[in-house]
Design the sequence.
């Protein structure tokens, strides 16, 4: 049975909806994911990308419902990451006439992943076009969005962009802007400067439809998602404070609450996040547009708590830039949690605005007053940072 979807006459989605995937290389996919592949039927037919290996048969069933597999001329590989390429061995066996169309870096990467000795390749360069007959495929390299070999494919006759990972979302629903933000924060953030270049490269293309490799196809709100990508590519902050913490017996939690109370004021979005009650994916998403962070941990074995360490590792790797921050936390007989967090914030090159706030066992009234005052200062910094960045409210806020 086929679940193909027609985008335009002769252009069909033939991918796979992975309802059950909950972990995408560490990114929590609460609502599953899709691997989008598209078929462009013309005088010569092209398959744009494939799916994850276990779903190759599903893709081939969808494809065979549209066209005789023996007539497919091209398989465009925009990106060698296995969520889009690992079905290629099965697909190339099933499409005897097809050539793989990709750039030289992708050709090399595919050769390192798969036995490609029997595959025929058409290696193209950025800006090159391939005529299918009535339609044309134009290829534009988008290095590091998401891998070095990544590219997008544009169909000028349809004003249609197959945008690969860019503009994608893990899952598909009315909440797609929110999902696009989560996707960006967890997958694309480290490559912001490349996103800026990609947006510049795509700026002149008339667009009516953007078909990413994950999630829903953009037919409306194209301007909004591009504006959002501009903001996200520079981690543009709004007046938002995030207080995140991991507590052992509640003391660090009391400090977090006092900091949050100090930060909460009209014009500032303040949030408090218990690390063990949340997950790294949601946390990273909050980091994408916040201006200021208070990060707390109790002390365990002269170090921060394990979930705080995981958060440092994950957030540090995503390289959110330009945030004000400070550390806080409780300790018993040996210090370590807040101090280690303080070092981690400095290593992330965030602007550490003060010494860590520490409490021996339960925070007393003076400590909580200090927390409230630090929260107020954090909110002021957040407002100043957002104003300096010229944050503009978007539809998706
Ligand atoms: Fe969806 Fe970078 O792969």
Sequence:
């Amino acid at each position: 049975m086929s679940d193909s979807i027609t985008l335009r006459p002769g252009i069909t989605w033939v991918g796979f909806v992975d309802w059950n995937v909950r972990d995408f290389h560490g990114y929590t996919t609460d609502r599953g994911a899709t691997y989008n592949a598209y078929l462009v039927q013309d005088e010569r037919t092209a398959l744009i990308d494939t799916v994850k290996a276990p779903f190759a048969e599903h893709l081939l069933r969808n494809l065979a419902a549209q066209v005789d597999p023996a007539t497919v001329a091209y398989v465009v590989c925009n990106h060698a990451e296995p969520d889009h390429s690992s079905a290629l061995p099965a697909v190339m066996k099933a499409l005897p006439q097809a050539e793989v169309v990709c750039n030289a870096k992708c050709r090399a990467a595919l050769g390192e992943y798969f036995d490609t000795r029997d595959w025929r390749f058409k290696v193209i360069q950025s800006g090159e076009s391939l005529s299918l007959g009535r339609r044309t495929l134009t290829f534009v390299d988008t290095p590091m969005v998401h891998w070095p070999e990544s590219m997008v494919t544009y169909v000028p006759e349809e004003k249609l962009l197959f945008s690969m990972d860019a503009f994608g979302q893990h899952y598909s629903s009315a909440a797609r802007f929110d999902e696009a933000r989560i996707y960006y924060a967890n997958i694309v953030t480290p490559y912001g400067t490349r996103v800026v270049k990609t947006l510049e490269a795509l700026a002149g293309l008339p667009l009516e439809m953007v078909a990413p490799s994950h999630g829903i196809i953009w037919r409306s709100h194209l301007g909004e998602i591009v504006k959002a990508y501009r903001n996200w590519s520079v981690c543009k902050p709004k007046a938002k404070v995030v207080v995140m913490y991991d507590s052992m017996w509640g003391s660090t939690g009391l400090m977090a609450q006092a900091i949050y109370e100090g930060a909460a004021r009209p014009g500032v979005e303040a949030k408090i996040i218990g690390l063990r009650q949340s997950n790294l994916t949601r946390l990273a998403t909050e980091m994408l547009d916040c201006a200021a962070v208070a990060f707390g941990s109790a002390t365990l074995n002269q170090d921060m708590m394990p979930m705080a360490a995981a958060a440092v590792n994950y957030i540090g790797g995503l390289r959110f830039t330009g945030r004000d921050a400070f550390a806080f936390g409780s300790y018993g007989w040996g210090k370590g949690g807040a101090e280690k967090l303080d070092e981690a914030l400095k290593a992330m090159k965030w602007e550490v605005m003060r010494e860590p706030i520490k409490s021996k066992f339960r925070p007393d009234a003076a400590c909580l007053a200090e927390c409230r005052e630090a929260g107020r200062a954090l909110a002021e910094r957040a407002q100043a940072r957002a104003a300096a960045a010229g944050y503009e409210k978007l539809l998706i806020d």
Observations:
- The mean pLDDT is 93.
- The first strand starts at residue 5 and ends at 8.
- The pocket of MU-OXO-diiron is lined by residues 79, 81, 83-84, 146-147, 165, 213-214 (CB under 6 Å).
- Residues 11 and 40 are 5 Å apart (CA to CA).
